[in-house]
Amino acid sequence: MIPTTIGAREESTHVATAQPAVKLTYEDYCAAPDDERYELLDGDLIMVPAPNIKHQVVSGKIYTPLSQFIENQALGTLLYAPCDVLFSDNNVVQPDLLFVSREREHLLRDGQKVQGPPDLVVEILSPSTADRDRGKKLALYGRHGVTEYWLVDPVAETIQIHRLEDEILVPTRTFGRKETLRSPLLVGLELRLDDIFSS
């Protein structure tokens, strides 16, 4: 079409329509390359970078006493990443640590993944995951019924405990250096934060 006057604008009959965002499923998640770690949050596939050394050290210092306590009391199963937790077809996460009580051991019957909410989820913050752990995943864990959620900050050297109240994980106590963490979920457990965060 040739404009009849200089500077005249052609009118387009094409109407742009918004395309709905594609939401991925657990099947898509399973088909992702296995040389990287991923999580699926509300249908969005998110690559999880490898944790740094401090993250790994702190994780080990929490895992060891927690594992001994859970085993000695025969309370259930403690697992560590990478381990898939399937909440729904659009939500699959890999928490740093998670505990499934004997009362919820049916969640482990699949043998491949945890199919439902663990009793306890522990996330260790890193620069690339902190916002997600404090935001989207906090809401997701509450919505799906995780009883207790620990946010571990290796930089501030704190552990903040959240407890489930009406599908919302509410912060109840933050522990720092010189303090001993006691969990409402794991009665009798004592974790000295000086031990957790010592170099």
Describe this structure in words.
The protein has helices at 26-31, 53-72, 130-134, 136-143, 193-197, and strands at 37-41, 44-48, 76-80, 85-88, 91-93, 97-101, 120-124, 148-153, 158-165, 168-175, 180-181, 191-192. It is an alpha+beta fold and 199 residues long. The chain has one domain (51-197): tt1808, chain A (Alpha-Beta Complex), CATH 3.90.1570.10. Strands 3-6-7-8-9-10 form a six-stranded mixed β-sheet. A hairpin with a 2-residue loop joins strand 1 and strand 2 (44-48). The termini are far apart. The model is unreliable at 1-13 (pLDDT under 50).
What's this model, at a glance?
The protein is α+β, with helices and mostly antiparallel strands. The protein contains five helices and twelve strands.
Key features of this structure:
199 residues; 22% helix; 5 helices; tt1808, chain A; six-stranded mixed beta sheet; alpha+beta
CATH fold type: tt1808, chain A
What percent strand? 25-35%
Radius of gyration: 22 Å
Helix content: 10-25%
Q: Which CATH class applies here?
A: Alpha Beta
The total number of structural domains is 1
Unreliable spans:
1-13
How would you sum up the major sheet? 6 strands, mixed
Number of helices: 5
Architecture, CATH level 2?
Alpha-Beta Complex
CATH superfamily: tt1808, chain A
Q: How would you describe the shape?
A: globular
**Strand-pairing-aware structural class:** alpha+beta
Cα-to-Cα separation, first versus last residue = 73 Å
Total beta-strand segments: 12
The H/E string reads HEEHEEEEEHHEEEEEH
**On the 0-100 scale, what is the average pLDDT?**
90
Sheet with the most strands: spatial strand order:
3-6-7-8-9-10
